[in-house]
Q: What sequence folds into this?
DNA sequence: GGTAGTTACGAATTTCGTAACAATC
DNA sequence: GATTGTTACGAAATTCGTAACTACC
């Protein structure tokens, strides 16, 4: 499983449509279709039903969607938190030793 | 950023040593070293100090570590939850219609 | 016939491992 | 000189896009 697969999955779930998800992700449809299938293979259960109108979430897909969104948010937050910690360290170095607390 | 990078990062942080992390991950040292550097580049701040004794976490690295562990756990749980939902659906189909609630 | 998803296949990208290098004790 | 992390470079694996295919209305 990869973060790209999770990202592709969320896009398809939200669009209900592989083609529109692909447009949103700036990739071709087959790339999305393949990654969704690979994700279903790895999890071991289908996440969507394929209908002539598009992709519809199955119960496992609904369960996965909530957690997938949370994972993507957590990844962003982890990076931002580390960046912030790095910026603090650099500004502290740049500012030199503090004169005092008062 | 990829899940592999997060996994590599946690291994290095826990081992304090690229070589031991690589052994634990069943890959060669350079693969780990490169992914750690790529992660630091993407985040935009160093996560470790390189010492002759190994790798030591910097403040941004400590911040990132907690969240990285949580992300890996969340990925596992997401897959397990979807699997469980799929198994329930299949057993319900296999069992046929319920006779009643009592 | 038009829309939607999926395979097939070759190309581009990414990741990897071996070997050589740099730095510290 | 022994240990540790990092580059260099070619090989392996993954991912991608175009084109062709299948299924349903």
A:
């Amino acid at each position: 499983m990869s973060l790209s697969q999770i990202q592709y999955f969320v896009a398809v779930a939200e669009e209900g449509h592989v083609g529109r998800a692909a447009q949103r992700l700036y990739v071709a449809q087959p790339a999305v279709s393949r990654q969704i299938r690979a994700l279903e293979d790895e999890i071991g259960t289908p996440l969507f039903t394929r209908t002539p109108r598009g992709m519809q979430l199955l119960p496992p897909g609904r369960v996965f969607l909530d957690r997938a969104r949370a994972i993507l948010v957590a990844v962003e937050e982890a990076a931002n938190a580390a960046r912030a910690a790095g910026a603090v360290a650099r500004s502290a170095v740049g500012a030199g030793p503090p004169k005092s607390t008062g």
